[in-house]
Design goal:
Layout (H helix, E strand, L loop, with lengths): L8 H11 L2 H48 L4 H6 L1 H13 L3 H14 L4 H16 L11 H10 L9 H21 L1 H19 L2
Length: about 200
């Protein structure tokens, strides 16, 4: 309700606003709009930040549990991408990473659908890992090597199965137990166990 009494503060304010240039009023409105957007973004950013922290904590819990599962079986280790990476890093210290690389190459090879690509990939894998004096020769017996060589004449997705199985068995019985006893894995399990204990104490 407007006031027309002399000296009324409301009347003075209205006159003051009316005396301002239109550009000033527009700027004031624009500033108000910008402040509203800024406050909304700040609130939204806080919500996103809180959500990101929850996701990060969830990932940490998952990764901690995953690290502990690697010691359950060699299969559990190979199913985990981070487990394969950790195992590969360990194998490098023993200069035997070619065994895992060959196993991974075989896994990728099995997914190939094109017959042309299948043949070229088979030859490349054989030359890199299987043939005698290969640059990254894996430790398999002569008989398995020859069987694999014959399989190349009619390359199928199973032509490396025997050589891959022999390499996997070698890693499982030899490298895998040493990995579990290694200082790097022991450190990871300590951190994972500590995280799990901390989580339980807060629940």
């Amino acid at each position: 309700m407007s006031c027309w009494l002399p000296g009324c503060p409301a009347l003075s304010m209205c006159r003051g606003l009316a005396a301002l240039p239109i550009t000033c009023l527009e700027r004031a409105k624009d500033l108000k709009t910008r402040l509203g957007i800024l406050l909304h973004k700040t609130e939204l950013g806080h919500k996103i930040g809180s959500s990101s922290k929850l996701q990060l904590n969830s990932r940490r819990r998952d990764s901690s549990q995953e690290v502990l599962e690697w010691r359950e079986s060699f299969d559990q280790l190979l199913k985990s991408k981070s487990g394969v990476n950790a195992f590969h890093t360990f194998l490098k210290t023993e200069f035997s990473e070619e065994n895992l690389d060959f196993w991974l190459a075989c896994e990728d090879f099995k997914k190939t659908r094109s017959k042309t690509k299948l043949a070229s990939k088979a030859n490349r894998i054989f030359e890199e890992f299987v043939q005698s004096e290969a640059p990254r020769e894996v430790n398999i017996d002569h008989e398995t090597r020859e069987i694999t060589r014959k399989n190349l004449s009619g390359a199928t997705s199973t032509c490396f199965n025997e050589a891959q199985a022999k390499t996997r068995t070698l890693m499982e019985k030899d490298s895998y137990p040493r990995f579990l006893k290694s200082a790097s894995y022991q450190d990871m399990t300590k951190q994972a166990t500590s995280h799990s204990t901390s989580k339980q104490s807060h629940t």
